[in-house]
Each structure stands twice: as structure tokens, then as C-alpha cells.
């Protein structure tokens, strides 16, 4: 039986690192297409230039760096992951010696980055802030400001503006989760979910019961919060994803933000 209840988000990603599918590091097992779509959107939004220094906080399976690698030769790429298990997984899968761009992955938390001040031209943090508490979010924004150059571009993605677990009372009950899916998402979703459960029960494939809470903040409050740390809004839009049929879907619960660093404080 390989159904595991995660004690925390950190525990969940330690578990994901043991999965054979490297896409599990981004929380998208079996959906390399979705991971690529999301990271390609980020890449197209950033106007990256040769010789820039780029930070990806929560770099997952390095899809974003792989895209940069195909398009540039002399960038410096720094990735951050919070667990040794994730870094070990990435180091096994990625042949860094073959990269044209200087690439390094460090173990660190978003709210305590191991980099000097004013280092990065671009910073990406996608699908990370929702895993933190309020204090950690503030400290993360402060750290992003600290390590970024003045006028750097910051991409903050997949930040919920509502509680995505509201009215979802199934908790960690698999039966309740299955019937919630049947009621709200239809028979096909129910059947696929049931299939996932049985595969996990009778094979080595693991199914993770994730943490049922997350950070969320409305758009206006987050823009004000970010500005306190010298992040000035340039764009805000609904997060985009694709379904298994390649149809583009606008999120009904999450925004993506693009900021510029305009430093007025002494760091």
C-alpha cells in the first residue's frame, strides 16, 4: 500500500522526490506537458537577455532552466529547493556538465536565500508562496528584494486569492474525496480518481494525501504588501494552465504577478 498522508508541505515534497517521475517535484505527476506550458509562459513574459543572472525559487524539475538552455548560452542560473531529497533527485536526472549556461542548485528556503545583495536580473517564484505562512511570505518578499538588482523583473505565479479548500469537507478521507469528485466534477473524474487509488493500493506507485490548507490573499492586498518591499506591479493576470486535451484554461482562484524592483529602502 502506497497511500501516504503528508504531515506538512515540506514532508510532501520529500515524498515526491522519491517518485520515479521527476514531474512530481513540481506536483504535476504525469503532466510534463502542463509543466512545460506553465514554464514557457513564464519564459515568454520575462524578456530574458544573454548574460543575465536568473533565480528560480522552487525550481522543481528544472523545466524553466531547460527552456533557457535551449535559447541562451551565457546566463547564470541559480535554483533553490528546500529539501536534500529534491536536490538529490535533480542531480541524478540533470546532466549539468552538458549545460552551456552556468547552473547551480542550492538547498534553501525562500525566506532565507543564500545569495548576496543585488545579484539577480530575473527572479521566478511559481507555486511557492501558497505553501508558506504569513510571516514567511513577508520574509520571502524581503529576500527577493534584497537579492535582486534595481529594476529586476520578478515573476510570482500561482498565488491563490481565495481559499481553495473552502466547502471541500473531505479532509483526508479517500471515500469522501472520491464522492466529492463525482458530485462536483463528474463520472470521468471519479473513475480516474478511483483508478489512481487502486493502482496505489496494489502497486509501488504512491498516492499522497496533501496538506489541506494554504496561504491566500486578494489582489489589492498583495500588491500593497509587495510594494512595501520595493516590488512595483507591472502586470497581473489569471494563471493559465492546460487540460489533457491541450485546451487553455484560466484559473478561477489564482493570479500571476509581474513586478519590477524599484529600490527606495536601504537593505
What would your notes on this structure say?
- The chain is α/β, with parallel strands linked by helices and 267 residues long.
- The chain folds into 2 domains: 1-24 and 165-213, no CATH class; 31-163 and 215-261, Vaccinia Virus protein VP39 (Rossmann fold, 3-Layer(aba) Sandwich), CATH 3.40.50.
- Helices cover 34% and strands 26% of the residues.
- The chain contains 8 helices and 9 strands.
- The strands form 2 sheets. A 7-stranded mixed sheet has the order 4-3-2-5-6-9-8.
- It is globular and about 55 Å long.
- Keywords: Ubiquinone.
- Residues 48-164 form the Methyltransferase domain.
Superfamily (CATH H level) name of the largest domain: Vaccinia Virus protein VP39
Query: Which blocks of ≥5 consecutive residues have pLDDT under 50?
Result: none
CATH architecture of the largest domain: 3-Layer(aba) Sandwich
Number of domains: 2
CATH topology of the largest domain: Rossmann fold
Q: What proportion of the residues form beta strands (DSSP E)? A: 25-35%
Return the CATH class of the largest domain: Alpha Beta
Shape: globular
Q: Helix/strand/pairing class, anyone?
A: alpha/beta
Instruction: Write down the overall mean pLDDT.
Output: 84
Structural features:
267 residues; alpha/beta; Rossmann fold; seven-stranded mixed beta sheet; two-stranded parallel sheet; 8 helices; 26% strand; globular
Amino acid at each position: 500500500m502506497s497511500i501516504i498522508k503528508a504531515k506538512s508541505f515540506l514532508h510532501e515534497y520529500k515524498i515526491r522526490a522519491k517518485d520515479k517521475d521527476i514531474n512530481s517535484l513540481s506536483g504535476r505527476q504525469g503532466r510534463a506537458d502542463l509543466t512545460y506550458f506553465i514554464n514557457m509562459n513564464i519564459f515568454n513574459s520575462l524578456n530574458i537577455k544573454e548574460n543575465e543572472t536568473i533565480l528560480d525559487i522552487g525550481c522543481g524539475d528544472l523545466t524553466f532552466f531547460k527552456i533557457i538552455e535551449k535559447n541562451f548560452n551565457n546566463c547564470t542560473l541559480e535554483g533553490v529547493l528546500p529539501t536534500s531529497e529534491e536536490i538529490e533527485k535533480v542531480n541524478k536526472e540533470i546532466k549539468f556538465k552538458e549545460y552551456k549556461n552556468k547552473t547551480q542548485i542550492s538547498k534553501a528556503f525562500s525566506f532565507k536565500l543564500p545569495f548576496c545583495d543585488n545579484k539577480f536580473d530575473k527572479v521566478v517564484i511559481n507555486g511557492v508562496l501558497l505553501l508558506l505562512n504569513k510571516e514567511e511570505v513577508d520574509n520571502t518578499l524581503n529576500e527577493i528584494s534584497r537579492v535582486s538588482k534595481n529594476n529586476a523583473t520578478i515573476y510570482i505565479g500561482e498565488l491563490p486569492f481565495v481559499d481553495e479548500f473552502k466547502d471541500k469537507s473531505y479532509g483526508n478521507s479517500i471515500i469522501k474525496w472520491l464522492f466529492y469528485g463525482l458530485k462536483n466534477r463528474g463520472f470521468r473524474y471519479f473513475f480516474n480518481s478511483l483508478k489512481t487509488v487502486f493502482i496505489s493500493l496494489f502497486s509501488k506507485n504512491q498516492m499522497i494525501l496533501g496538506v489541506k490548507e494554504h496561504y491566500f490573499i486578494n489582489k489589492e492586498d498583495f500588491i500593497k504588501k509587495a510594494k512595501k518591499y520595493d516590488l512595483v506591479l507591472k502586470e497581473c493576470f489569471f494563471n493559465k494552465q492546460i487540460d489533457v486535451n491541450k485546451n487553455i484554461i484560466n484559473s478561477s482562484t489564482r493570479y500571476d504577478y509581474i513586478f519590477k524592483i524599484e529600490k527606495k529602502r536601504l537593505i
